[in-house]
Amino acid sequence: MTTKIGVFNLGCAKNLVDAEKLMTYLQAEGYGFTQDFKEADLVIVNTCGFINDAIEESLNTIDYALSNHAKVIVTGCLGKNKALILEKHPKVLAVTGPDSLQETLEAVHRILPPVKKHSCQEDLTLSGGVKLTPSHYAYLKIAEGCDHPCTFCIIPQIRGALKSRPLEAIIKEASSLRDQGVKELLVIAQDTSTYGLDLKNNRSIVDLAEALSDLGMWIRLHYLYPHPHLDALVKLMSQGKILPYLDVPLQHAHPEILKRMKRPNFTINMLDKINQWRDLCPEIAIRSTFIVGFPGETDAHFEHLLDFLEQAKLDRVGAFQYSPVKGAAANAFADQIAPAIKAKRLDQLMALQMEISEEKLAQKIGQTLPVIIDEITQDETLGRSYADSPEVDGLVIIENAPLLTPGDIVQVTITDAQEHDLIGMVNRP
Hints:
Layout: E1 4-9, H1 13-28, E2 32-33, E3 42-47, H2 52-67, E4 72-76, H3 82-88, E5 94-95, H4 101-111, E6 137-141, E7 143-144, H5 155-159, E8 163-164, H6 167-179, E9 184-188, H7 205-213, E10 218-221, H8 229-238, E11 245-247, H9 255-261, H10 270-280, E12 285-292, H11 299-312, E13 316-321, H12 339-362, E14 368-376, E15 381-385, E16 396-398, E17 409-417, E18 422-426
Parallel strand pairs: 1-2, 1-3, 3-4, 4-5, 6-9, 9-10, 11-12, 12-13, 16-18
Antiparallel strand pairs: 7-8, 14-15, 14-17, 15-16, 17-18
Helix pairs in contact: 7-8, 11-12
């Protein structure tokens, strides 16, 4: 009878990639998987530890796994805080940190011996590993860790300094994914714009994007901090080599707050830069995230942020209330913002962005856009344009239903717009 393991994954896409790799090796060793903790012989909880809410969710998930009488191993970002996990849940059998494939496999082996073992030096993902995304798109992690000293963040403490993968290894994996039927690659790292800065061969994210563009897939870059490389990447977008989708986590707009955050872009005039990018690539879709209620954020600072959004008219925006996390430098800052004020500011910002988003989407009515098909049900066909990344952005709802399959890329004329999504009709040949 096959030994069944339940893998519960929390957190960001980088964690998802780690879970996919772990499950690929477990599968090769003869283990099966189940989503039902009660059926599992062992549960692995892949945790997030980025902010307090994520830590609480991770601890609650561990508690849920243990309450179902499962043997539990904890891995992922919160695994760096082993003492906290064992204090809250002493029955956990093993704790490993992020990017710890070998250590996690060894912990599994001690509890449930495998049918056979594989060396972690052999990259099993190249021959078609476990994927937690639909078969037509995949996340491609190009680096681990981060060198930025952002005062609200503890990622460098959790995942270490920047460690870029060799370009050749990335292209090999991307080519394998293409051969397995993947049509869209979502390129991720903590900051993809710094890719290669730690490599001795002077390879950069621009070199990587150029190389990926030769594979004939949709290439979507995520988490690009403002950096001189972005101008060259936007040029590639204008040439049709990578998707004209720029995900730039700005976090704020006022230089005083950005300086307190120790963000790398606090001296850049972002409105001028955004206008330059749009001049170079008029169809570009720009996504960003912002933090409201950062310590010391005054009403004037917040109004400056709202003014920036009104002028920038970004296509997609996510926003969060500042949340202190143990180990972050900003915890010790004076002038912490009251929860009620943070909540009010978040509501104001998102209400403004909703108006901007509706206006931007309405402008697409009548346009014809390439759309990748994600899901087909009895009632509707759902896809995404180049401006929409999975799960974080909107959808294109297709009203006519020619014979399509997930992963098809078709031309769709937009006929209407909703708050977040577009409605359209496939152009028939």
